Amino acid sequence: MTRYRLAIFDFDGTLADSLPWFRASFQDMIARFDLAPVGADEIEGLRMMTGRQIMARLNVPMWRLPAIVSDMRKRKLAAAGEISLFDGVGEMLSALQHSDIKVAIVSSDSEESVRRVLGPMASLISRFDCGAAVFGKHRKFRRVARRLGAKPAHTICIGDELRDIEAARTAGMDSGAVSWGYAFPAALQAAGPTHFFDSMAEITHRLANAAATAQDTHVPQSCG
User: Fold this and answer.
1) What is the pLDDT of residues 153-211, one digit of tens each?
2) First CA to last CA across the chain, in angstroms?
3) In a shared domain, residues 36 and 120
4) What is the CATH number of the domain that holds 186?
5) DSSP state of 82
6) Is 6 strand, coil or helix?
7) Residue 208: which domain range?
8) What domain count does the chain have?
9) Fewer CB near the terminus (10 Å): N or C of the chain?
């Protein structure tokens, strides 16, 4: 397995359990911006769609997208105290740091909101690059890797949406999809991520163990 020097994480749905908040806010967003109605029985089906398919279903014109994203960021910041991290996030981030794997967060959310939810664990993050455009994450992936001195071939981007896999591929980086976030696991697996993770412990196991194996192979042998 590749020895990664940098792990770039999405935040909502990957590290933070914000799907319940999104579900509660979804219908209000539709009403606020006069988008195409979505029945309660249709909401789960959106989790099988790409970002562009969702926009088409909601009849969102591209010119309105910035205003919608900005509004959602403000409301998410106000609700930051209600959102928690998934179990095991702290242990996983600490293990990666101990394995000399730098960690960054690239999110469409605001950095202030991300830091509020992370709390003290923010100290485990080498770089934040937030406010990503819905379809522009690949540019931020490249910028983060460049600023942290990591080659694309030694970088993995881990997220919970189809666009995370697409952005990693466009940036020339490996992708990791998690089974517990926004998109359904079957949709993520069909998109062909480099790795598929079922738990935080699995992320730790694969990335940290690969780092440890790489270090072991470079230990000088005794001539005893």
Assistant:
1) 999 999 999 999 999 999 999 999 999 999 999 999 999 999 999 999 999 999 987 66
2) 31
3) no
4) 3.40.50.1000
5) G
6) strand
7) 6-16+86-217
8) 2
9) C
